[in-house]
Amino acid sequence: MRRLPGGGSVVPGNHSDLLAGRRPATPPMVSVVIPYYDGQHLLDLLLTALTLQTHPPDRLEVIVADDGSPTPPDVGALDGRLPVTVVGQDNLGVRPAAARNLGAHAATGDVLVFLDGDTVPTPGYVEAISRLPALLPDALVSGHRRHAALTPMSVGLLRAWLTAATPGPTEIPGPQWLADLYRRTGGLVAADRRTYEGVISAVLACATSLFDEIGGFDSSIDVYGGEDWELAYRALNAGGVLAHAPHAHAWHDGPDWSGRQAGPDGEAKARRQKAAETAMLAQRIPGIEPGGGPADVVLLIEQPGQGYPPDWAVRTTAPSGWDDELSRARVQITVTGGASPGVDVLTALAGRVGPGRPGRSTLTGPGWTAVAEATAALRRSERWATDLPSPDLLADLFGAELRHL
After folding, report:
1. Are 215 and 328 found together in one domain?
2. Are residues 212 and 338 in the same domain?
3. Pairing outcome for strands 119-121 and 241-253
4. Any alpha helices (H) in 241-317, and if so which ranges?
């Protein structure tokens, strides 16, 4: 782990666990961004819960991003206890990603905390979920979303529950696949190429600097669901550290999405929504549909051969910067020398870098040298090259190997 000159740290790989138990010396300035559409009662509950946070109120602001509600949101539940800004956009259909970006653009904090408008945070939520982004500017953190029927609750009953004066509502079980994912990966520490599926935008936090660098959510997404996975993939591929904050609890009104699709009509609707989400993600994330979507590997080679995998992009001239194709590809391979290695050799080389593996793998053969580098390793080492001088920062943070054929 390396310390940054201005505070904060950079960790090797995805090891947010190296900062377990540590807290920022000064609580960060936090902007809570709430995408909202026509749900005033639940917004009242959420805003009331924000007035009960353990995070210092003078280090907290609230932004409500209205996605074209017929009646603008009322933020009176804050009772003047926290600074609040309301921004809005026209109702052009389902656009939660654009609403979140609108809210983030109005934020002034160093850490962004996203909370859906039908979600109520426990008093320690903001403090718990903002901890890692304040210590680790590469971190993209998902909190622990729990489920209960919140709509029947009054503001007074909610306040009594959150201050432990009365028992809370009966908990509805959450999705087992998500709990299994967190358990299998040790809270997303043991990252792989699908770890982004553990990130939920309803309970999400990151440094404003990381959000700005990766361009925020994809505002062009106009289907239900998936914008969080798309953001998390780009963050991971930009050298972000995905993490789960198990003690950052927030309660969602009602069951998880899959539990809300009862009956034949609901099941058919669920299939349509999931198909639309998968199609959207396949256009933006490599490997979801074999041979389709963005390039998984970008190969730079002077004399290309034939028979490369269909999800590879082959270039003969070096790029001048990070275009969209390079940013989304997981691996970059550069071949130098007059000769060229075979496709099988290059395919195997591409598989040697990435999450849980070295960030760079160099292979030399007769008349050629091939270097495979994980995009995530390249992006993170470039980001911190000025602050962390090193002969080879990529190798320091991700490891590197050299082999001879």
Report:
1. no
2. no
3. antiparallel
4. 263-282
Phi and psi at 299, nearest 5°, equal: -105, 125
Give per-residue pLDDT as tens, 322-361: 899 999 999 999 999 988 899 999 999 999 999 989 999 9
- Alpha-carbon gap, residue 268 to 403, rounded angstroms: 52
Terminal Cα-to-Cα distance of the chain (whole angstroms): 33
Q: Tell me which of 253, 282, 311 is where a domain ends.
A: 282
**Rounded CA separation 229/218 (Å):** 11
Same domain, 217 and 343: no
β-bridge pairing 241-253 and 139-148: parallel
User: Could you say which DSSP state residue 247 is in?
Assistant: E
The CA dihedral of 266, 272, 275, 280, to the nearest 10 degrees, is -120
Q: What are φ and ψ of residue 399, in 5° steps? A: 85, 155
Q: Is 133's pLDDT higher than 90?
A: yes
- Let me know whether 274 and 318 are in one domain: no
What's the pLDDT tens digit per position in 161-200?
999 988 999 999 999 999 999 999 999 999 898 999 999 9
Query: What's the confidence (pLDDT) of residue 140?
Result: 99
CA 381, 382, 387 angle in degrees (round to 5)?
80
Asked if residue 16 is part of any domain, the answer here is yes
Rounded to an integer, what distance in angstroms lies between the CA atom of residue 109 and that of residue 53? 16
- The radius of gyration of the chain's CA atoms, rounded to the nearest angstrom, is 23
| Domain region containing 113 | 2-282
CA 297, CA 317: separation in Å to the nearest integer? 15
Is 388 found in the same domain as 319? yes
Please give the structure tokens belonging to residue 380: 């993170």
| Residue 21 and residue 48 in one domain | yes
Residue 344, amino acid? D
- Distance between CA atoms of residues 280 and 221, nearest Å: 8
